[in-house]
Amino acid sequence: MAKYLPLFPLNLVVFPGEKLNLHIFEPRYKQLVHDCLHEGKNFGIPTFINNSVGLYGTEIKILDVVKKYDNGEMDLSTKGLSIFKILEFDKQAPGRLYAGGQVEAVEIINDEDFVTKLKIKEQLTLLYKALGVEKLFIDLPENFTSYDIAHHLGLSTEQEYLVLQNASEADRQEMILQHLNQVVPIVLETERLKERVKMNGHFKNLTSPHF
Hints:
There is one protein chain. By secondary structure, the chain is of the alpha+beta class. The chain has 2 domains: 2-105, LON domain-like (Archaeosine Trna-guanine Transglycosylase, Chain: A, domain 4), CATH 2.30.130; 114-199, no CATH class. The protein has helices at residues 27-39, 114-131, 134-138, 146-149, 157-165, 169-199; strands at residues 2-7, 19-24, 43-49, 52-68, 74-90, 99-105. InterPro entries: Lon_prtase_N (IPR003111), Lon_prtase_N_sf (IPR046336), PUA-like_sf (IPR015947).
């Protein structure tokens, strides 16, 4: 079912369930936030990509106005709710300073593949250990989805946007696993190279080979 949303295009991807802190300083977005708070509405963050507003984005709920400044600027705590596709885009919503658009919700298909998920876990363990950020893995919820890890894989904005557009969890898992299968060996080889470089110039206790 289509509905009209105030829109706040940004050069980033927001996933469902993600917490996002925003500093609001432009007059048009001060107005957007005021309208959302006053009318109890949500707004949308479509991804600004390739110098244009992308068709896909995420509906955002304002959780809290953390701080208000004397000049009208604000710090907001927000959360991503669901993914939408823009049907009609208005550079300015009727009578407003900010953009708006007619959007429809993208139905998410919860068809995760358990075997693929195990492979992703294995690769994540290797990656985070090599990078020294094991805490990222420890802090993951037990039943994590592709959305929970997409920002912690070294994906480009373009790659994250492809994840956002894909309605199938199984397909998103395959995209992520393919990325990890490419990246992890490079990271591990880089770590091995660093260790070899560190060894150069040090005294070594070497055992002569038998021949």
